[in-house]
Design brief:
Number of strands: 18
Shape: globular
Distance between the termini: 55 Å
Helix content: 25-40%
Order of helices and strands: HHEEEEEEHEEHHHEEEHHEEEEEEHHHE
CATH superfamily of the largest domain: PPM-type phosphatase domain
Radius of gyration: 24 Å
Strand content: 25-35%
CATH architecture of the largest domain: 4-Layer Sandwich
Largest sheet: 5 strands, antiparallel
Strand order of the largest sheet: 9-18-17-14-15
Length: 411
Amino acid sequence: MGNIRTALELALGTLTNEVLDVLTKQVAIRTYEAGSIICVEGEFEPIFYVILEGQVAFTKKMGEGDQLLGIKTQGEFFGELAVLDHAPRAATVHAISDCELIEIHETVLEEILTSSPSVSRTIMKGIIRSVRDTDRITIAELQLKNNELAKTLENLKTAQGELLRRERFERDLEIASQVHKSILPLSFPKVPGFEFDSKARPAREVGGDLYDVMEISDNHIGIVMADASGKSVQAAIYMAVVRALFVSETRHKVSPSETVYDIHDLLMKVSTGDMFVTAFYATINVETRLMRYIRGGHDRPVYYHAATNELKLLDVPGRFLGMLPNFMVEESSLIFEVGDLLVCYSDGVTDATRPGGEMYGIERLQKVIYDNRHQAAKELTKLIVQDIDNFREGEDQPDDLTLLVIRSINK
């Protein structure tokens, strides 16, 4: 059982004990002899695989023969796209040594994806890598069929195009940086009974995070924290589209779930296949202090309830927006009482690392919030960032660091 847990965490990242217990109780272990076929291209099969022992190879029919796509080994996974999209297998999988595989049925995977955003991100990154690897192989195959004269001409065109591309990229990067800065709020609305503060520090010149506090009506505000897949120009432009959709859709409705369902549908019409966004979105009635919220695959916000002096994570289930058609979120609510705190953040906060690879983690974030729970929003933001920077000990920032702090105060 220990080997199963190790392989699952190697493939899917650090998992909670709850997720590990679900997986270890419901997975099947199957052995395949060297030379046997595990999956066949074009067939339907509702199984996601994690390699416990051995190596497998992937081949795809291209032209008159089979093209080797790659090899995977212990601790890696495959079969994710066919399961998530209910599509036929995109490649044939061969056991090139005796193998032991962990087989996870699609119903179990659906349950884990709904409750664990970190697993969702890991699998989505695997899908993107697989698509890009296949594209590279297809392009390479076409290039091999060109004659030497065509290759020389293409190389010349490529060199000229690269020079122009770099010049355009530098201009585009400057524009995208301005676009991203323009979608982040310069200030927050003045709302009696509430105070807000934020911090946004991109890991690269252009970031992919979004936060905002929006006035929806005379007595309602909206709070959004979102993170686009990828970084740099594409992420900045994509997030500008996401912000425009939030601004537009929040004018028509107060229900967070209705809002994000509409935004998801619109993103499905305009986004590319490798782009998606995670989001936490809430609306607050400033008179009654009722907060309704959803979590679309985003990191769980930390909520401090002053009356009970307790912290909790807002762990309502939900999927990321804009990539897969079977979108799902659940809406929940609470009363945001005087003295309460809400801290929204991007994964660049909890994924911050120190030399040696140790991650900052949600427990450290909860501790610094609890220890400083009586501080004003601005001071609390400052203290969280200081704690993260001290923890990193000079290590590079791996991802965008974004915080949004909301405190409920007396009017």
